[in-house]
Amino acid sequence: CDDCENAAAIRAKREALLAQKEREDEEARRNRERLEDQAELERRRIEERKQRVLDEQRRSIDEHRQYTQIEKERLRIEQEREDRALREANNYTDDDAQRKRERDRQYNEDVKRQIEERRIQLQRIREEESRETTQSLALPEYDQERRRLRDLQKQQLLEYLDKQIYEKKEQQRTIKEQEDEDARRNV
């Protein structure tokens, strides 16, 4: 009968459409899960990079803190040594002591200022690193090149500041030796 054949054809067509819709729904579900997995993976990578930047900043701050403590202790020991040597000198006057205290105070302030400038410059570099890390997440080769250049900049800055501190210390030492020599000649 024609009606039976038509009904069977319609039923077969409906079943084929339902099967196709189920396949499409399944494919859409798999795609959605895959995209969610990719988004989660990317979020983890971003979090890991942020954590690395934070760890690097903490490490840098700790290193600076240690450097500052060592430098302060070294300055204190050097000051004590110089004071003891000056007390032992027989021809040491109150004016000489006042000049020495003023010179030492100025020297210590200069060293502290240089250390603070170094800390500020390192902090700026770290902030730039952090900012660039978040900006360049999609471009790892750009990020590596920027990091390499920044590390080179940091190293050059540290070497420059170390040289400046050394030269300032040498200058202070020369002035001190000249003043001590002048004080000995005046006695």
Question: TL;DR?
Answer:
This is Meiosis-specific nuclear structural protein 1. Helix content is 94%, strand content 0%.
Describe the structure.
Residues 21-41, 79-110, 126-145, 168-187 are annotated as: Disordered. This is Meiosis-specific nuclear structural protein 1. This protein is mainly α and 187 residues long. It has one domain (2-186). It has helices at 2-88, 94-135, 140-186.
Q: Helices and strands: which structural class? A: mainly alpha
| Overall outline | rod-shaped
- What portion of residues belong to β-strands? under 5%
Query: How many domains, as an integer?
Result: 1
Biased composition (Basic and acidic residues): 96-110
Protein name: Meiosis-specific nuclear structural protein 1
Region (Disordered): 21-41, 79-110, 126-145, 168-187
